[in-house]
Amino acid sequence: MTAENLSADQTPTDLGVLVGYDGSELAARALEYGAAEAGRRSIALTVVSAYTVPVMVYPNIASMPEENEAEAAQRAVEELLGEAAGLLRGHSGKVSYRADQGDAAGVLRDLSAHAGTVVVGARGRGGFMGRILGSVSTALPAHSHCPTIVVSGRRSDADEGAVVVAVDGSDAGRLAMFTAAEAASSRAARLEIVSVLPSGKEWLYWYPELELNTEVTSRRRAELEAALEAEVAAVAEQFPDLKVSAAVPIGNPTEVLAELTETAQLTVLGTRGRGAVRSALLGSISRGVLHQAQGPVMVVPS
Question: I need a labelling partner for 298 at 20 to 30 A (CA). Which of 68, 78, 137, 208 fits?
């Protein structure tokens, strides 16, 4: 392993695959996943741990600790990075380590401007990613400058299966599709493009005046399948060696996509879809899939 230690005041230029590490079990899985990603792409791997320094008030000099809070926090995070280096002992590529002061989501968001991909665990220990899912692992994908992969601990065979990408005809979905194609190509995996057709029950909830029947559903499904054929052709043109398929499952989009994470090598989503409110940084479907995912999920920023 080649290790390059970077201080927090250095300006990053090309961090490659950026992994957030806090010493938790899922952070270790994210580290393993990030190292494999960097190896596949032959790019650098950067491991970062973030720390905050609480403002303390002491009644007198005698009650002050021998080591101030800032020094203690930095020493603790450097120990974490040493632990990470031990886990990466077998990694043959370039590895850099950073100890940055600040909120975990904010640190990763800023560094993501200089990275190709960010990888985090779905939950962490508390100091780095320990707040419930919906904190760093949901806030970061919404604000990141590059794709974010959230690694769940529910599956151990995440290097098998197809790369699945959800599209809905939006620009965000199309960007996610080509990002997924690149990911599938680097893994020598099959790409499956999915467009979920909401079931009639969902449409009737919002539009009770509609008359939905099997004929209407079949016609709409055929329209989506025809649209996906054009998308498959577009991907095949740019990635001629990639095996690409398409599917139009019917059901609740969040539930359908969450179920696909059980067998997919990687599930790729956009931050927002066609029907998203502009002010919503992370769409309800993407957020819902992250909460229910059984395997790694990549969220591609718009």
Answer: 78
Per-residue pLDDT of 59-79, as tens digits, reads: 555 454 555 667 777 888 889
Q: Provide the CATH number for the domain around residue 228.
A: 3.40.50.620
Predicted confidence (pLDDT) per residue in 23-46, tens digit: 988 999 999 999 999 999 999 999
CA distance 250 to 151: 26
Are residues 146 and 212 both part of a single domain?
A: no
Helix (H, G, I), strand (E, B) or coil at 30: helix
Residue 188 has pLDDT above 50, yes or no: yes
**Helix H or strand E encompassing 6:** strand 2-6
CA 155, 158, 160, 166 dihedral sign is: positive
CB 88 within 8 A of CB 28: no
State the residue for tokens 């995440």. Answer: 158
**Among candidate residues 87, 120, 151, the one where a domain is terminated:** 151
Instruction: pLDDT band for 6, please (50, 70, 90 cuts).
Output: very low
For residue 50, give both structure tokens: 């973030």
Look at the chain and report how many structural domains it folds into.
2
